[in-house]
């Protein structure tokens, strides 16, 4: 994702990386601040929407796991 942005502008890629890192770091203090995920039927799965991207993460008792970063309209491919 950052490589793609950098093709247009290296500075924009650097700024985007800094901004997205800042948003993700807020999850640590307030993990439930974002909406319940549209990709999973589980209260622990959350979606942080940021600049056209959805950062989906899962809240465990002792950790938070980022499941992926997708363009807003994309969905996860889940194998059963």
From TrEMBL:
Question: Where on the tree of life does the source sit, at the highest rank?
Answer: Bacteria
Which Pfam families does this entry report, sorted A to Z? ParE_toxin
Swiss-Prot/TrEMBL keywords: Toxin-antitoxin system
Q: What is this protein called?
A: Type II toxin-antitoxin system RelE/ParE family toxin
Species the sequence originates in: Sulfurimonas crateris
